[in-house]
Amino acid sequence: MTAASEPVKKRVLFVDDEPNVLQALRRMLHTMRQEWEMAFASSGEEALRLLAEQPFDVIVSDMRMPGMDGVQLLTRVMEQYPGIVRIVLSGHSDRDMILRSVKPAHQYLAKPCDAERLKATVARACALRELLADQALQRLVSGVKTLPSLPTLYTEVIAAIQAPDSSLEEVGQIIEQDMAMSAKILQLVNSAFFGLRRHVASPTQAVCLLGLNTVQALVLSVQIFAHFDQAVLRRLALDTLWQHSLATSVCAKQIAADLASDRTTVDHAFMAGLLHDVGQLLLAANVPEAYGRALALAHEASLPLWEAEQAVFGATHAEVGAYLLGLWGLPDAIVEAVAYHHRPAACLHQAFSPLAAVHVADALVREAEAGGGEDTGLNPQYVAALGLAERLAEWRVQCQGVPSPA
Length: 406
Ligand SMILES: [Fe+2]
Ligand SMILES: [Fe+2]
Known about the structure:
Number of helices: 21
Oligomer: single chain
Bound molecules: fe (ii) ion
Distance between the termini: 60 Å
Number of domains: 2
CATH class of the largest domain: Mainly Alpha
Order of helices and strands: EHEHEHEHEHHHHHHHHHHHHHHHHH
Structural class: alpha/beta
Largest sheet: 5 strands, parallel
CATH architecture of the largest domain: Orthogonal Bundle
Helix content: 55-70%
């Protein structure tokens, strides 16, 4: 093999205050020297010094460290070196603390972690970034005049959730201050869609009944859809897409819950379902003429929309949406689900995940929308490889039973 064809080594920085842990990592990852260039730091301060001296692709950090802790370190890395993949390798008790923050980690790994898990996690995070760094996508995104910024209300809700002494009431009150948002959230949670048996009278009650994560996801998606004016989106039926997104989110959540996934996976499946087609909004609003061509091509050549987009733009709404969510620092599992929802087999991670839930839910919802018989884009090999084929019939019935939110 010539030097030119050799894959570029990933540069990985490990940070842990315990010498034993660093020593164990060195020993365990000895065999990775062919693929990774590794450095080891015993404090957040030392890690920042190394980062200033040389570029890294990935940082793997402990959480509890004297001086600068993991959250502080990764927050600094996120601000100064946004391109670096941030992975937390920490004790189980820290998990909730980390998951409460949308930022600053891309991935979480519990100690002890074997070499294969670590290797797979790094590979998965790097692959997602490489997909989103694709040149055609970069050209397309740079043509997007204004990428919406993370909605303010959503940022306020996240800050309240992260505050150590926050209560459900406080989060509810923040939403209540925004009249339009309160009305929309109440309309949604009282619709047949959520199947709640009692009437929900306030955002605080909604948070108590549905959970913080569900309401947080609703706040974000309601704001994103509100950002796009129907007048601008001549070529896209906003309402239809909103209903499709809601139905997909509810089905994805049911599928994840059905497989007895952990709470985080269920929440991520719901949020990814709500946001999976957000790239369509961005494209229709920012490159309307070209997007019209993609829609026409899909119609004339009977192609799935994403294939027509690929032909016109060299990238699809899936990657465009994932790019935006990645920029906002949403968890990797959500970004990944959005990025690969039409091509799940292209994802390195081949186990049940929010991606699988969204892929299946999107297809089943489209089948229900079309009244059956259409090519809904379901990838049966992928579904079978995950061992989910025999569950499809049951999920199909569930998805058909999801009522319209109107
Ligand atoms: Fe899609
Ligand atoms: Fe979809």
